[in-house]
Amino acid sequence: MLGTPPPSTYVLNLCEYLRVSCFMSNEIKDILETAISEEKKASRFYSNLALQMEDKGARLKFEIMADIELKHYEFLLSYYKEKFKQTPLVKEGGESRIVRPETPAKTASFADAIRVIMDTEQRACDFYRKASESSADEKDRKIFNMLAGMEQSHFEQFRTEYNYMTETTIRFASEDIPWMMEVY
Questions:
Q1: Domains by residue range for the chain, with CATH
Q2: Which tens digit of pLDDT belongs to each residue from 59-90?
Q3: Which residues make Cβ contacts (< 8 Å) with residue 145, sequence separation at least 6?
């Protein structure tokens, strides 16, 4: 009578692959659920800032950012449903799991708010970069890298604005000034 043959290397590797794949799938699931929750919070954050702005330009800037973050949320929600064939468990309130910016005082200046936004956008960028690094799935990595790039561009946009607000001098060359030429 023959005994049970030892498991082949292929079967052991397949079992290990499935165990790791399941773990990574749950990790990616958690990452996506966190990202979905954070993007929704970011949209609300920018909407609330827009409501506080008396300046129409500032209000419009924050309304646009709220819309952008809402699009990130909708994109991630759709991707999650496609990938896992279910609706994610999304925390609606409470403290952020990943992005914990310093909360400015109620009397914070516009520059203080921009500094908090810069910090938040940089943390979001870092989150997506780490998510990309931890993912074994090429499509996940592409999505996380794309989002990291978007968050980095948001950071750069607000950093430029912050620098303009806090810079005490204006730099330009005479050739940059329109109509500064000799007329013949």
A1: 9-167 (1.20.1260.10)
A2: 898 999 999 999 999 999 999 999 999 999 87
A3: 128, 129, 132
CA atoms within 13 A on the CB side of 32: 26
Close Cβ partners of 134 (under 8 Å, ≥ 6 residues apart): 24, 27, 28, 31
Q: Rounded to whole angstroms, how far apart are CA atoms 129 and 125? A: 6
pLDDT-derived band at 27 (thresholds 50, 70, 90) equals very high
Instruction: Give the count of beta carbons closer than 10 Å to the beta carbon of residue 137.
Output: 14
Is residue 101 classed as helix, strand or coil in its secondary structure? coil
Q: Return d(Cα 154, Cα 161) in angstroms, integer.
A: 11
Contact 38, 72 (CB under 8 A): no
Residue 169 is predicted with a pLDDT of 75
Answer positive or negative: Cα dihedral of 145, 33, 155, 102: negative
C-alpha span between 111 and 163 (Å, rounded): 9
Helix locations, the chain, DSSP H: 9-52, 56-84, 110-134, 138-166
Distance CA 171, CA 163 (A): 12
